[in-house]
Amino acid sequence: MTSITLTFFEEKHRETLYGFYLPEDQEKFTAMPNDALKKCEEDPGRKPVVITASDQTVGFFVLHTGEHIKDFTPNPNAMVIRALSINHSEQGKGYAKEAMMQLPTFVSSNYRRINELILAVNFKNTPAKQLYEKAGFVDRGQIKHGPVGPQYVLHYDL
Question: Where is the N-acetyltransferase domain (predicted)?
């Protein structure tokens, strides 16, 4: 497997991200990069991150801090991971798992005050939940209502 790199979004990534394709059964569980980028432009607490492999943009997610994550946690030093996607043509290569394995180091080196990572995964999205748990995220029994039904809220202590 090619190793991946996590980098903050730059304009050079936009065209590839706007061309991402996900099948309908995956797209219902996440925001597409073009929609997520628009929200990042409106909310300074959202920082877009690009997953690259061999200098090719293969994935995307958003790191979210601030007032708008209070429905996940009262912890002011927490960060929510949103809108993770791997372009369909690049799936099955281990990129998402590798990105989640690198994420704690990436966050710690860029956000020193953050001590907890949080994400929500739909009850029906079993492969994603398994991926996050393999990367060290823990289900503490917290449930949140999401746009397509109930979601597990998973935690990772830094």
Answer: 4-158
